[in-house]
Amino acid sequence: MLGNLSKLSTGQRLDLPEVLRISLDSLRADKLRTGMTALSMAVGTAALILVVTVSLTGRSYILGQIENIGTNVIWAEYTGVSSGPNTESLGDRLTVRDLAAVEKSVPGIMAASPVVDLRLNTFLANSNVPVLVLGVDPQYQLVRRLVVSEGRFFDQKDEESATKVALLTEHLARQQFKSPDLALGQVIHIEGMPFLILGVFRESVDTMGQSEIEANTVLIPYSIARYMTGSDAVDQLYFSMADSAAVSEATERIRAVIVSRHRPESTYDVSNMTDVLDTAKKMAAALTTLLLLFAAVTLLAGGIGIMNIMWATVHARTHEIGVRKVVGATRRAILLQFLCEALLVAVVGGLAGTLIGMSTSVSMRLFFHYPIDTSMLSAVIAFLACCLIGIAFGISPAHNAARLDPVECLRHEE
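^ thats the sequence. predicted structure below, dont judge the formating
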């Protein structure tokens, strides 16, 4: 290292290539400490990239699930009375007449269906099991984006002629008939009436029983459910808008139509998936921020490692610094020298971390065939952040080295 001093004379300034060469020589002199510091920076950089990758992938998955349920879906249900005793005698439930009024008053509705909840004794394969029977319109399949895996959904002809047909969930079909395809053509009895199994369905997204559809659910035409209940009251009204951008406005208009048709003290919940979607986005953003903080701590730990190694380097090379100053090296040259060494460690660690982070994401996509969302921007930002941290944590040791008194430095034993 001292051999490089022969190129320095009074007033001479180190050019950048020479600074880089001397910095590399200095770092090679302590490979273990340099390598460990660069490794900590690599871990922090890779962590930042992977956190962004996981966050983007998780966000896309959650939003995709919600969108599959239907961001253009609006539902309405009776929730009780705002004053007085909440009893059945005061009930002011929704009816199919409300549905017709909404379809007439609110433009842009693509499909609509009432839902009647019937918890009746249903016999499947000669066994009495608790089954949720829902009376719905043929358009319910479109509104709820149901997937018919076997057979078909009942149509408007079945509805108008009150044909006794039914659809089972895949779970119920497997439980009772061993296989969904074996359920087709079988007969179940609801309140003593025989129903021909027309098809087997599932939700496009598994809602884990958090929607009106449960694992053991049977769908029948609303006209049959209306006959069985002896009332035109329904539990929910579902609407599907042709344009998802009109959902918010349509929700308010549907609420206004329903409220205008009932007593003032009756209350109704008219909702859509927009609020759920917004909540999911906020939760995803909050989770991403939390994970980024953890990754940033790892990167800062690497920065502290750089600062420690530079302090140790300054201490070990105090005599060399004194010689450089005696032969003409300026404070700026000394400062640049040590900053360059700190930056080199950060660059090596940043490049390694970027390679690890991006290769991990690509490998998961190739080997697990999972749609991983990678971001080149996150890789660039992580690398730049690593470099900036290297410079920031290297300034203090470099500044201290530049301010050392040359006489005191020469007295320091090597």
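The chain is about 55% helix and 20% strand.
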